[in-house]
Protein 1
Amino acid sequence: MKCTVCGKPAIVKFPAHNSAFCEEHLDAFFLRQVSKTIEKYKMLPPKGRVVVAISGGKDSLVTAYVLKRLGYEVLGFFVDLGITQNDFSPRSREVVENFCKEHDIPLEIVDLKERYGKDIPEVAKRQDRICAICGVTKRHLMNEYALSVNADALATGHTLDDMAKLLLANLMRWDLHHLAKGVPTLPAEPGFAKKIKPLAFQSEDEIIAFAKLHNIKPVEAKCPYGREAKYNRYQEALDMLEEKSPGIKRSFYKNYTKYAYLFEGTQARPPKVNCEVCGFPSVSPVCTFCRTWVVDNEKKK
Ligand code: FES
Ligand code: ZN
Ligand code: ZN
């Protein structure tokens, strides 16, 4: 197998692109792809400031690494959820801290226990929708941080596989609200930072190869609450299609981004009230975040 660019021995083959690459050209290919995504979807101004939500998984580590390589001002953000089962949070925190140190990325850590006196396992005792609560918590905190540092955008590590499986799941239910919001860039709105997904067109195998090339080692521990498991069947269906028709995942998602505007206006109206506690837009007088982390604590006092 030879590199499509230079003809030297290739280390990796990407059937979806009908290409194979040596180390040097894998690096160049990946950077170019992400840079095109950033430009096409107007994610960041040159040298812009971007907060990256880093969990310790390969996708968010690669997102932070690539943005730094492309010359952006990257600020890392990590939420310590306090999940000690499987050593999940301590290991993730260590991986993120070491990574940021190595790549000279300033890191902001919010430790839930330190800040709110309780953590995810404690909330999980009274809540069966813990993954949803955990998602709300992380989104609230990263949004708040991105706004506080005046970032041009908040980046997450969503990949082509994530975007395609969410798209398929939303289509299966004709969930118009989420179909309008599955695009790689969501503009800033009052109370919300601009949200970007720079890896929205990079597939799992490309990210794994790139992480390996740069010795980026993600946390191996898995969250014991098994987040996202409900989307696995969509992933399996897409993987099966991709095997038969390489590139189909990419064109499925890419063509959706062309027509996503058709779903605009089908979104639920923006929240009307501001949360009485934190002041951020909310659908109820006190937002889910504050109900979970702040109000309960005050009652206990
Ligand atoms: Fe939040 Fe698993 S990472 S519940
Ligand atoms: Zn080459
Ligand atoms: Zn609130």
Note: The chain has two domains: 32-268, 269-301.
Protein 2
Amino acid sequence: MEQNPNRYTITAALPYTNGPVHIGHLAGVYVPADIYARYQRLQNKDVAFICGSDEHGVPITIKAKKEGITPQQVVDKYHGIIKKSFEEFGISFDNYSRTSAEIHHKTASEFFKKLYEDGKFTEEVTEQLYDEEANQFLADRYITGTCPKCGNEEAYGDQCEKCGSSLNATDLINPKSAISGNVPVLKETKHWFLPLNEYEDFLKQWILVDHKKDWKTNVYGQCKSWIDDGLRPRAVTRDLDWGIPVPVEGAEGKVLYVWFDAPIGYISSTKEWAAREGKNWEDYWKNENTKMLHFIGKDNIVFHCIIFPSMLKAEGSYILPENVPANEFLNLEGNKISTSKNWAVWLHEYLEDFPNQQDVLRYTLTANAPETKDNDFTWADFQTRNNSELVAIFGNFINRVVVLTHKYCEGVVPQPASFSEIDKQTLNELTAYPSVIASSLERYRFREAQAEMMNLARLGNKYLADEEPWKTIKTDEERTKTVMYVALQIASALAVLSEPFLPFTSEKLKLMLNVKSSAVETSLRWNDISKNTELLKTGHKINKAELLFSKIEDEQIQAQLDKLQASKKMNASTSSAQAAANKKVEPQK
Ligand code: MET
């Protein structure tokens, strides 16, 4: 791997299409991935930022059954909602595909076939629970029964949600098919396995030795514990009628395991994009000089660090990820985010309540990103971040610079007279910001990077407050002009350095400063800030001031808290109704 690669393949976890996306998804995966992708593009790197919808798997079939529609209808609905949310929040994917796409079926199918033909799988006949009435094998989630550990009668075949134990379907007492309600029988079935045990030496060297220093400790720790526990063969096929058919003889009625096909979705999505853009997809997946990164949440670590790399290794012609900067989870007002309990802030709902305020949410989520441990989102903090930081520091600084430039300099960058010590020091401090922010971003420390960006706005604010151009204008016009010149340089640096974090704000700011948003022909480039402090030249005309942020009132926050309280009440009444219903049936047993 080169020290400073020019090509980046940046993937963000493919969201399951069985529900919309919420702030936990944004904070854990998509905002950090987007910040990183935007930052690398600003370095003039060749970036493929790749994602798409994960449209297979059992939960989607369950959702379809519940709603009385087909799985295809479920994924069509949520694919549209999710894609729109990402666009609305400025997540700048180069391609957003879906795993039901033909190109993906073909890619995943060929991948499986190659491993099959190269003898990389083992085959095993096992006994699985089967529903004789529905004529089908039952996925773990389709079996309910009594938990052998805590006695909960509603445990699932893979997990008891009451006590949290992970289970095997055959462990359940009184198992029942969720399809027909019948008692399932055991029936033999053949499956293909990836013998992860054979990849143990490779994984030990690659993760535990080669990446000991540069992977995040939460990621490294989870991998180490998987490896230390000993890896076992993992089934890569399932008896299910929703998914990609297993492309070998004797596998009728079987599909690829969703976690086998989903990560291949990154490859298919890259292919789709490359074909559209006239690029060669293999440059992004098979070239040792490309740096590949997977942005994911902590529940995806084993799949991206152990299983997918073993698949890529087995195939033989792919590069491996350079890093997997997984995040922990975001909680909401002290409780775990939960779709079923409606304990979440849904992105599409947020925009109804806070129209055009995407950057406020992005900012708050990054400021509280669960980078090293689970973290909490609170509406009170959201309000403070907006009112005391975005409005009072960033917005206030920019507003003063632009308004005063119009007031004192006819909207034109003035000619500075001689610089005072403070001016020189301020311009000098400014040049350090690009590399300070870059160094945090290169180490996946997004909170720290964003805080540094805000420090630059603070520097600007303090400079204006100390130099008081509104006072000097009465006595020394030259001094005022010099101060405005310096302040304008800070404002223009902010326009560039804020782009990864606050893309909508950066765009507006560039418009106000009358610079091209692509920043190609102007001097407004990330790295130029460190070299050349004359970012906006004397004589350059700027546009009128527009408000970047506006105050969020207590009532708006209260409305959000009320919404959450309503969910809480609703949950309490459903669970007491459920408890009452359970009581009623008990005497009959
Ligand atoms: N759909 C998975 C999840 O949401 C991620 C798949 S990434 C290949 O956890």
Note: The pocket of methionine is lined by residues 13-16, 54, 262-263, 265, 300 (CB under 6 Å).
